[in-house]
Amino acid sequence: MSRTRLKRTVGNYVTGDRFFGREAELEWFIQHLDEGDHLLLVAQRRMGKTSLMHEASRRIADRYICLHVDLQGSASAADAIAELSAATYKHQSLWAKTQELFANALGRVALNIESLQINELKLSLRSGMTAGDWQSKGDRLLEILAASDKPVVVFCDEVPILVSRMLKGDDYQITPERRQQTDIWMSWLRGHCIRYQGKLRFVVTGSIGLEPLLRQAGLSATINHFTPFDLQAWSGETARHCWDALANEAQLQFDPGAQERMLEAIGICIPYHVQMFFNHLYQSCRLEGRQTISVELVERVYQQKMLGVKGHADLSHLEERLKLVVGRDQHPMVLELLTEAAVVGTLTSTSARTLCKTYGDAGNDAVLREVLGILEHDGYLVRRDGAYAFESHLLRDWWKAHYGFGYVPVSEREGQ
Question: Is residue 348 classed exposed, middle or buried when 0-12, 13-18 and 19+ CB atoms within 10 A define those classes?
Fold first, then answer.
């Protein structure tokens, strides 16, 4: 067993000596940035996208200015420009010019700018733009960034959330006006990526897929300048190395077969789930005075903790985010498709079509193809042997435990 040690970290992004298992991907990621690429970082939730971006930022800080922009709270292009403007605050040369750009909005707080909380700063910057003013402010801001003495990398997280709000609003409906505004925003971003190629690099990501959202509105071409960077799950070997390193740090040992049962239970080694599993085992060992992790303990922790009703906001979040992509009309149908897949083990084309018939126009073949494509793209289902199934055993078992009670599979319904 390797004597590598790793401190437990669950929930937050990691950098430095806590960054684990992504060296090859990180090297390739940085090479793309060095070559001037704009990147679309594609991965399902909890795969380590944010950690990859922050560790890359740490390692290239000597030759790039790195700005981190979280758009989860944004609902408009003006909000996004305010977030990007606020991100320059940590870089004095850029911030001085950004202050000049927003002199009217910041004038009343200029004397106390150092004491401003970041959220107050964003609000002040946002107040300096009208609905039609974001483009001119954004043009000037990117001009400032491109003129920096070092190339600038803009890491944009949760871009799909912003796009979903712009495109669908609170009622989850795509209208011509919303489509036009989204097109203007995405085309503006595309135009500046091309204009400042080599001086600016944009890395765009989010916990739901951007491409499926834009495809629904016929706007896929607005991201064709981004190079996809697909962040896959860990291999079983990497997960084992992680568990060994965590156990070394915690002074615990695995019994024979324990890690094999852990791999079988989760199915796909999403880094967050790998570390969450060990964290539950660690807590149980400490409470029970154990020094070894047995197969029996793994099984008990999986059933009681990993699939439990408490402390799983992350898995619940997957269900909530579905509505942002598929919309309000298709949401109930999608929940039923996933429940069929969880309870039965697979979702066949026959079962999918049968379920969708009960939803009228919301469940026609074209919609079904689109929905299944989204579920596959965003990591819920994988297609094997002509049917769909959950790739993550953990997500499958959790979904079955929480939504499967009382569910009657299509094959057992009367008249089917």
Answer: middle
**Per-residue pLDDT averaged across 280-284, rounded?**
96
| The pLDDT of residue 181 is above 80 | yes
Q: What is the pLDDT of residues 74-108, one digit of tens each?
A: 999 999 999 999 899 889 889 889 888 887 666 55
Taking only the tens place, the pLDDT of each residue in 128-148 is: 776 678 999 999 999 999 999
Tokens 């010019």 sit on residue: 97
Distance CA 147, CA 135 (A): 18
Q: What pLDDT shows up at residue 111? A: 42
Amino acid at 20: F
Determine the average pLDDT of the residues in 258-287. 96
Instruction: Report whether pLDDT(249) > 70.
Output: yes
SS (H, E, C) 299-323: HHHHHHHHCCCCCCHHHHHHHHHHH
Nearest-angstrom CA–CA distance, 62 and 45? 30
Alpha-carbon distance of 296 to 292, in angstroms, equals 11
Which tokens go with 241? 């190395």
Neighbours of 311 (CB within 10 A): 11
Residue 53 in tokens: 């971006």
Instruction: Give the Cα separation of 385 and 404 in Å (integer).
Output: 24
> Cβ of 58: how many Cβ atoms within 10 Å?
12
